[in-house]
Amino acid sequence: MVAEGFVAALCGAGAIMAYGVRARSSSLFGSSVYRGSPLQNSVALTFDDGPSESTPDLLKILGEHQARATFFQCGANVERLGEVARAVVSSGHEIGNHTYSHAPLYFRSSGFIEDQVTRAQESIVKITRVKPTLFRAPFGARWPGLGGVQRKLGLLGVMWTVIGRDWKLSADAIVDRVMRSIRNGAIICLHDGRQLQPKPEIGETLQAVGRLIPLLKARGYRLETVSQLLCPRN
């Protein structure tokens, strides 16, 4: 009986850990959101892993449709492509923190986590003159120690309502996946980079975004930044 109780407790602890690390609704390892108000017909496009050499193409598409978005940027990419990072800001979009090098945070020390998030924050502030208030963990995986860093830097964690899996799917599949899961207050996760890879191929993402925005607008959705989404209009 003692052994069975120990195994049950161990399984329970493992389940709690798994929930804290990956569940989109979890705030166990730091404050986090994955959607806005279901009462507002607004959604937020978000893009991870940038900036990249392809980000200007994405900015052009967003500009043509007068759509705002939130870009979760890696500090190392911001340092490499500072002009592109600044172009995101000057185009009216929001920048969030996506760590410095996109290294997974799980099974890492609190010191490592703090270094990754803090270095990204410092790089983004230095180069863009914008201080992020939002954070997204690489691969959406949180870990003990992250919450303290978020509080220290004033960062709200952001997961997603739907992820397009645009690093491997075709534009058709990305559009279908997003539109099947869309609803009021949805946060949509896509990518304008591939971790720290120079000149990433994001052609399918670009095609998908160019098709998604008109479809979303046709359903009556406003395209807003995450911060706007979380502060609903009256």
Keywords for this structure?
234 residues, alpha/beta, TIM Barrel, 6-stranded parallel β-sheet, 9 helices, 44% helix, globular
Give an overview in words.
By secondary structure, the protein is of the alpha/beta class. It has one domain: TIM Barrel (Alpha-Beta Barrel). Helix content is 44%, strand content 15%. The protein has nine helices and nine strands. The strands form two sheets. Strands 2, 3, 4, 7, 8 and 9 form a six-stranded parallel beta sheet that branches. Strands 1-6-5 form a three-stranded parallel beta sheet, with no helix packed on it. The protein is globular. The chain starts with a helix and ends in a 5-residue tail after the last helix. The model is unreliable at 5-11 (pLDDT under 50).
